[in-house]
Amino acid sequence: MVGLGAALLVGGMDGWMLGVVLASAGLRWLPTPPNPAQQRQRQEAIALRGQVPLAADLLAGCLSSWCPPDAATAAVARAIPQPMAGRLAAAATELSMGADPEACWERLGKVEPVLAPLGRCLARAAASGAPPAAGLARLADAERAAAAREAQARVRRAGVLATAPLGLCFLPAFVLVGVVPVVTGLAGSFLTRI
């Protein structure tokens, strides 16, 4: 589109040459849009990241009531929406079949990097034998705080990006309306005095 716009704006053979150069530069340096599988994977990772605090709170509640880990994980999997529900249901199935809890939770973090903090927290609790409720509550608070910081950073960035087009429009207008008349007036009075 940039190349076609340049070709039409400049016109002639020079315009077509400039258009070809700009189009090839755009193809070279502009990022390619993600394919549907990559988009789905990214949306799933975003959804999982948003569900980590809720899952941690629910697991902390279930495990602090002395519920077995497999039953607690299965209950949370039924209470939370997809995609987290599928991951937790698979972990609950592994735990109910007698899998090592530490290995099961580490595997959860390795399969989904977004779930790595949750997997590490539960694996650490399984290895030490300590109740995981306090660690899960801290994890939920930390994930909520990180999400709030990221949201604030995105809002600040959006504000900056929204002002860039305005600056690109108003700066030339300011120069043409404010600076050019003053310079031409001063230049005219200076040249008449010479």
Describe this structure in words.
By secondary structure, this protein is mainly α. Helix content is 85%, strand content 0%. The chain is built from eight helices and no strands. α3 (36-64) packs across α4. It is elongated. The two termini are 50 Å apart. The model has no long low-confidence stretch (mean pLDDT 85).
* General form: elongated
Low-pLDDT runs of 5+ residues are none
Major beta-sheet overview? none
SSE pattern, N- to C-terminal:
HHHHHHHH
- The amount of beta strand, in percent, is under 5%
Oligomer: single chain
In summary, what is this structure?
With 194 residues, this protein is mostly helical. The protein contains 8 helices and no strands.
Helix/strand layout:
Elements lengths: L1 H9 L1 H18 L6 H29 L4 H11 L4 H13 L4 H11 L4 H13 L4 H61 L1
Helix pairs in contact: 1-2, 3-4, 3-8, 4-5, 5-6, 6-7
